[in-house]
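Re: [help] complex structure
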Amino acid sequence: MRVEFDEPKCVAAGQCAMIAPAVFDQRDEDGVAIVLDATPPEEEHDAVREAAAVCPAAAIRLAGE
Amino acid sequence: MPDAPYYPMHREARCPFAPAPEIAAMPPVGQVRIWDGSTPWFVTRHADQRALLNDPRLSIDEKLPGYPHMTRARAAMAPHIPSLITNTDPPEHTRLRRTVNAPFMVKRVEALRPRIQRIFDGLVDDMLAGDNPADLVEKIGLPVPTLVITQILGVPYADHAFFQAASRRAISHDTDPDDAAQAGKGLGEYLGGLLAAKIEQPADDVLSEMGARVTAGEMTFAEAVTMGSAILIAGHETSASMISLGTLALLRNPDELRKLRENSDDPKFVANAAEELLRYLTIVHSGIRRIAVEDIELHGTTIKAGDGVIFDLAGANYDPAEFAEPDRLDLSRPARQHHAFGYGSHQCLGQSLARVELQVIYGTLYRRIPTLALAVPFEEVEFAMEGVAYGLTSLPVTW
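Output below.
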């Protein structure tokens, strides 16, 4: 699994950081998401899939799925 | 379209948590009649809302002619409202939203969790020390989110009677435009005074942060005041409704309440329970509204450029294609993909804060007061249906 993040779309709703905190964080100045681990380990995959599914801006894509 | 049903529709007194029954009966692309007699398109399905709420062919620019305004008062005010996150499209929206996101980031609201827990515990102590029965709306529902948002914004809690009354008048469907404008103006003057003071003497709060952005030329004074009012209004009424209605819904579903009490040490269970209650209650019941700026084909219907479109959030949250048996409250079902906070780039700014508040309260209220029960028959509980979101006028409880 590879996490592809379309930063200009991000509205900083923060759901990714809440659901998969090992993979996503938010930038201090404006809350925009940061990908901490673009190739997350297997045990994070379910959380990352959920984060991608609920992202309100559809800014998270998963390659190699 | 002479047969278009009037919107917002009324919930049924028999099952007040469910959306109005007409909503499920609407075709995927229907039409409703609103207060000004116009008949915007009405989209209720979860999948359609997901697709369209990120579609650049729809705009939230409420100044465009034909925009399906929420109320007469809002229509009258729209031309005078500065550019805000609530009336701009990307990319301008993206820029504006990034100036107000920071205080509502997950790590910042997570850091507030112990403070929210203390606020809540203090209010429960007070309620238990006072008269029994008591009104849960007055003792817990309203004060928790109001105390939290006033601390975050830097607004004196002592003024809560004033700004709660003003915000209710500013957003209710029942208020006439002059009165709503007056209430909005009063709130603006109040916040303007506070903002000016914070610019002089900054503190560790959001108004001071906005004051610094005003000083730096990143936002105007008027924008900061309008944004501050919006945060203050949105920050107490809706969470208060979720607390009170959530408690009522749980008392009506004792098996689910028992599950929640038994699993209250499991943050994952509590977090999902909060999502399911957000879905089940979908308190925003006047739809989120857009205007088409290009033609859009949807299920064989053409939504033309210039047409208004209303998305009913409860429609999506009770769409059986997305949530099986939607009328059933099931705290263990996967519910996170609900649209209770909207969907798309305008999804609720304060959602992470609301989640932490609800997790704290749903996680501890029923454990702290295991004998909590309604003090009146369910049929006598008074609902407040006239706002943008529904709630309870009062919730008499005993223990």
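Chain B has a mean pLDDT of 92.
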